[in-house]
Amino acid sequence: MHKKRWTGLWFVLPSFLGTGVFTIFPFFSSIGYAFTKGTGKAEFAGFANFRELFRNDAYRLAVKNTLLFIVEGVPLLVVLGLLLGIVLAKWKLTFERWAILIPMALPTAAALLGWQAVLGENGPVNGLIRLFGGPTVDFFTGGFARKTLVFLFLVKNLGYMAILFAGAVSSLPKEYGEAFALDSSSRIRYLRHVILPSVRGMVLFVCVLSLMYSFQIFREVYGLYGDRPPQQAYMLQHFMNNNFYKLHYQRLSTAALLLVLGISAVLAVFLWRQEKIAAEEGI
Amino acid sequence: MHLKKTGWWLTVGFALICLLPFAGVIAGSLRYPGPLPVTLEQYGRALLQNMTFYTGFWNSCWNTVLILAINIPISMLAGFGFSQYWFPGKDALYWLYVVLMLMPFQAVVVPQYIILQKTGLLGSRWAVILPCAFSTFAAFLLSQYMKGISRELLDAGRIDGLGEFALFWKLAAPLCRPAVTAAVVLVFFSSWSMVEQPVVFLDEISRFPLPVLLSRSAALFDGTAPACGILFSILPILLYRFCYNDLVEGISLGCVK
Amino acid sequence: MKEKKLLSWIAGFLAAIAFCTLLCQKVNFLLCPETAVFYPQQTSLEPDGAQYETVLPVACLTPIGVDEYLLFYVQDGRAYQATAQIVAEKDGLAAVSASLPPDMPVVRYSSKPLQDGVKVRIVEEILP
Q1: Cα(A18)–Cα(B204) distance, integer angstroms
Q2: pLDDT > 70: percent of chain C
Q3: Do at least 3 CB pairs under 8 Å connect A with C?
Q4: Which of helix, strand or coil describes residue B209?
Q5: For the structural domain made of B49-251, what CATH number should be given?
Q6: Among candidates B2, B193, B74, which has minimal Cα distance to A13?
Q7: Which end of chain A, N or C, is more open, meaning fewer C-beta atoms within 10 Å of its C-beta?
Q8: What residues form DSSP beta bridges with C109?
Q9: Residue of B nearest to A2 (CA)
Q10: How does pLDDT run across B203-232, given as a tens digit for each residue?
Q11: Structural domain boundaries in chain A
Q12: Neighboring chain B residues of C77 at a CB cutoff of 8 Å
């Protein structure tokens, strides 16, 4: 019996060792940077690094943009994903199912070339706008920059989320749906009283995944603007990259520590909710 | 009735939007300054004159293949361990894995840089491969899927005298085929367009994977970037085309419940 | 069955790309100018015996204006253009003032006319 206790750990070990060496251990050893000053001889600095970081304009801009992006992008992705998932669960839609996952398969670099052609100054979208007498819209560098990024984020990840929801919705017993009449007002009731409660667990899972993908938007931003994005698209990752090139390890480690704490806190709330749901459903 | 129709139309509309960027690159790749409105000249130039494309392409290939070769086996093991056993500290470890999965690369860039410097890997192919090969996403995905494997099946296997590893290899692994395929495909997609790590950990152009070259030094491609983008998309699209069913089943966690 | 098909597609595609890589290498090899290079030296030029930083054969320099010369140096397999002035000259050797990266070979002969940034192949190193 005693041997059994640790069997699971043996399975996890290879992966854990690698992760430990390349991520976990270095991360904990770098926490020290956040509380020290000076390069040669490190000196304990208390929370001075944190105070300095909060006063930094670039950091504030980066946090603001990243939070705005997450607040705009993630809920929209979850809600649209759920709606699309319900539609997909209802019909067969072979072509649509196939098409909505294409943006995930297309490499970012290629997709960006495509979007630049489509949304660019001489692209078809601006052509249409001009046709209706509107002014040319600069989707990438003007005031639209963040909205464009949210749009790219949605197109890229919506398919994945919709497939996840479609799986959860179609695993509901069919009789549930038949019990409700099919006129439109009760369809909304059906959504609220049957579908939503039964996919709660999936909603949490999708939120976590969306959060993960929202940090990967940096690939698009980097592909579009390189190291110097417009104000609206200056993300936390840029702040960190720039400080990395300036070898400003202390500031960087402080920012990283705050980010990790933030993510862990959000995640703790999610997991706590999930356990509650699991307990309610009696799994 | 009319709610139904709206949903259907919106879905079709969204599906078309999803194909837009693909159409955009294809259209872009068929143009080249010259008399002809539609030509394959970009492809010719990309394939026959541009060594940069091949350098980038093969770098991407190697990186992706090596990442998959390390990441997938250890993630299968970890997923099995997390989903089928209890051991002291398991919940904390699992939580740590999820945090690591969510962590943007920049949060660990300094410590990783230092460790790579200390091990002398900085600037080599392995500097990009190793940190990615131990990313925890696949382990998370597989453990979610493996939660659906029935206890009774494994217990029956134990009664038949199979060891714990044989249980994993003979029973669990074949059952999780769709999820493993999904993990392979998703990790492939993500490593194939890897940008963050090479930009920081590599300094020689000859080691950069193609996406970085495409976004950083478009000048190297003499206007053939769209064609290179299309050639670069062929492998992921092939993978997508053939693994579609497994991918969908794997990510919709078919086994759960 | 499907896996077989997928694998054969992937193998086919990779083989095609590998073939094109070789072909492209060959094309680039043929198009790439062959050059003979000379490493500029830090020596003294007789008769005054003064030390000069950069001394190279006069044949490396192409006049482009009054007292201005063009030369190509090779860095990472590519030829780059630079301008130079002659400071002193003796026996086919010239001391020049030019902003060259240190220890870079300068092109002496080339099988084709060079342009800034073109790839070149070094086939010979000329010794002083």
Answers
A1: 26
A2: 95
A3: no
A4: coil
A5: 1.10.3720.10
A6: B74
A7: N
A8: C36
A9: B87
A10: 888 888 998 888 776 677 777 888 898 999
A11: 48-281
A12: none
Question: Is C71:C106 a contact under the CB 8 Å cutoff?
Answer: yes
Specify whether the CB–CB gap between C44 and C52 falls below 8 A: yes
With CB atoms and an 8 Å threshold, state whether C10 touches B238.
yes
Interface of A with B in 24-83 (CB under 8 A): 24-27, 29-30, 33, 83
> Nearest CB to B49: which of C10, C17, C27?
C27
Neighboring chain B residues of C78 at a CB cutoff of 8 Å = none
Residue A46: both structure tokens together: 């208390």
Tell whether C16 lies on the interface with B, counting CB pairs under 8 A: no
The candidate with the shortest Cα–Cα distance to B188, out of C62, A107, C5, A89, is A107
Picking from C113, C119, C120, C103, the residue whose alpha carbon sits closest to that of residue C35 is C120
- CB-CB under 8 Å, A219 with B193: yes
| pLDDT tops 60 at residue A183 | no
Assess B92–A contact: CB distance below 8 Å, yes or no.
Answer: no
- How far lies C33's CA from each of B49, C24, C72, C109, C112, in Å? 14, 15, 13, 10, 5
Among the listed residues A238, A230, A226, A241, the one whose alpha carbon sits nearest the alpha carbon of residue A112 = A226
Query: For A105, what's the count of Cα atoms within 13 Å in the CB-facing half-sphere?
Result: 25
For domain C34-126, which CATH number applies: 2.40.420.20, 3.30.450.20, 1.20.1250.10, 3.40.30.10?
2.40.420.20
* Inter-CA distances, A73 with A204, B13, B227, C124, Å: 15, 20, 31, 60
CA distance C72 to A50: 52
CB contact under 8 A, B48 and C24: yes
Does A96 have pLDDT greater than 90?
A: no
This model of the complex carries an ipTM of 0.85
Which residues in B lie closer than 8 A to residue C120 (C-beta atoms)? Answer: none
The residues with which C110 forms a beta bridge, in sequence order, are C35
Question: Which residues in B68-181 belong to E strands, given as ranges?
Answer: none
β-pairing verdict for C62-65 and C68-75? antiparallel
List phi, psi (to 5°) of C125: -110, 120
- When pLDDT is averaged across residues B104-127 and rounded to a whole number, the result is 85
DSSP assignment letter at B150: -
**Cα–Cα separations (whole angstroms), residue B85 to A5, A6, A12, A101, B100:** 8, 9, 10, 34, 21
Residues of C within 8 A of B234 (CB-CB) are: 13
- Inter-chain residue contact B57 with C23, CB threshold 8 Å: no
Identify the closest residue of chain C to B50 by CA–CA distance. Answer: C24
A145 neighbors A232 (Cβ within 8 angstroms): yes
Alpha carbon distance C40, A122 (integer Å)? 51
- Of the two residues B109 and B232, the one the predictor is more confident about is B232
Name the DSSP class of A143: T
A153: which 2 tokens?
Answer: 């984020």
pLDDT at A192 over 80: no
Domain ranges of chain C: 1-31, 34-126
- Nearest 5 degrees, angle CA B253-CA A106-CA B181? 35
CA separation, residue A117 to residues A122, B26, B29, B31, B125 (Å): 8, 10, 10, 12, 33
The shortest C-alpha distance from B19 to chain C (Å) reads 23
Query: What mean pLDDT, rounded, does chain C reach?
Result: 82
Give CA–CA dist A28/A83, Å, rounded: 41
A172-to-A283, B58, C17, C26 alpha-carbon distances in Å: 16, 46, 47, 61
Contact state of B102 with A223 under an 8 Å Cβ cutoff: no
What CATH number does the domain located at A48-281 have? 1.10.3720.10
For chain B, what are the domain ranges? 49-251
Integer Cα distance of A234 and A222 in angstroms: 10
- pLDDT, residue B256, reads 44
